[in-house]
Fold each of these.
Amino acid sequence: MLPDIKHAIRLQLLDDRVAVLTKEIAAFPKHIAEIEKKLDAHQRRLEADRAAVVGNAKERKRLEGDIQVQEQKISKLKGQMMEAKNNEQYTAFQHEIKFAEGEIGRIEDRILELMSESEPLEKNVKAAEIDLAKEKKQVEAEKVVAKDRTAADQKEIDTLKTERTGIVKEMTPAVFSEYERIRKGRAGVAIAEAVNGRCSKCHITLRPQFLQELKKADKIMVCESCKRMLYYNPPQSFEDLVPESVRA
């Protein structure tokens, strides 16, 4: 196999790995943004639940004030009723007192409703506070993981790029230039292996004569279909796999 082809194969492996790591690094901020968005939504829901609890308590307090007003009104009416000069006035005061007592009953029923509503609201708030605290810890932990992974990925990328620079120096400039041109025009893949008489990337069957020329491995050849560089790895025989000391 030509040295330039060996270098191109190694370059492709390095470029593929760099692409994976770069994609991973780019995905971390998006992931953090998504979980922070969910956290904000849960925070707003908790604030709404807290507001509902506060609103419930305020409404009960207001209604308790209304009861006091009605009780004061009843007390005043009873005093006036004792000074009634005739049955007609007396009966009128009785009707007003009865109406005020009915208002108190209605208000008390509403207070009982609010009290029954407040219990689950308060439970929801407590549960949401616990869940939110756990979620905040999880988000912070994921931020730390993302930061560490990003640093590790970037360190690996730097190492790969250093190796890549060394390989490029050993390649024939024209071959490297062709490698880069093909890679940019073929979704990052510039070189492919011929397997079972086909290009492993576009899967088009190679012409017999073309395949024979490729097997000679004495020049740079490209797939007649996808225009990627091609290489052929001859199958290894059993003798090739067994160490010479064993064969002896």
Amino acid sequence: MKKQPDVTKKALALHKKLQGKIRVVPAAPVRNRDDLSLVYTPGVAAVATKVAHDPAAARQFTGKGRMVAVVSDGSAVLGLGNIGPLGALPVMEGKAAIFKAFADVDAVPIVLDTQDPEEIIVTVRRIAPGFGGINLEDIAAPHCFEIERRLIEALDIPVMHDDQHGTAIVVLAGLINALKVVGKRMATARIVITGAGAAGTAIAKLIHLAGASDVTVLDSKGIICAERMDLTDHKKELAAFTKCMAPGGLREALIGADVLIGVSGPGLATAADIRLMAPKPIVFAMANPVPEIMPEEAKKGGAAVIATGRSDYPNQINNSLAFPGVFRGALDRGVTRITDDMKLKAAYAIAKLVPKPTPAKIVPDMFDKRVAKAVAKVVR
């Protein structure tokens, strides 16, 4: 592993200097009375009247058509867990900065001082008129599923929980190319997912839609099987289309598996576990900052393709390859709902940008300017 600079100290110093990563800058100059009369009184009255009489005009005459709310309750932040709204704020600011830098989407970080699903739903519904999209972020399972579902039903703007769907899109993109590298097929590959929270659930659903027919999912208690009496509603849904060869844990699930996708926690697998897998195994160890298995250990076990969520190894699987382009496309085309078909097409569009994948290159670089455009193009 390359020696990295002390990111912690540098990040703290940068944030203290900046006092936040987001700024509000007027799009029109306000230099004199004439400017003021146009952007504010008296000229703004005509615009306000027009929008009041024709709500659809808000997309052309206000920031609604280019603005996304990045909303979190701080209950499941990065690898930090439930650190509350203020703890979540720097992350939401970072998300907003990525929206702007990668897809020229204006985004506002909003952290809520509640973790009650009903209060979150009501609050987001109340603020929604000012936005063209809602990006839900770092909200813990299982509440995130209900919150997203009900907001999608209630609002006429796109709502997406990025921990679920952004992750699933990029994982599928990487998996498409990783399978090409090892000469295997989605339809016949045995795929094991460790972690049945927001990300693991969405990944399982999306790769199933993409043609994966042999998927096993594990939570902290082992393989998810319909016979288990402790399953929550979303795990019962998983059990309906995933495979449970027998009760057991990760080692039992990995025997003969082609793919391991980890979205759970650090240090869950060893080289010995990877050796249980089929020849030329694929390992996506996504936990951050410490993955389920370090790449060096996975390589010892014989992994042919290795991906992580980290920036200091090849094949960084990062949501920023997906969410900026998804919302860019949705805003540009007035899309009211992000569909499964859009997610699938986004994954294939990302994968296509690496036409000749290799073990060290299965997804494009996050700073590849083609990515957001390619994703936005398929969101229709």
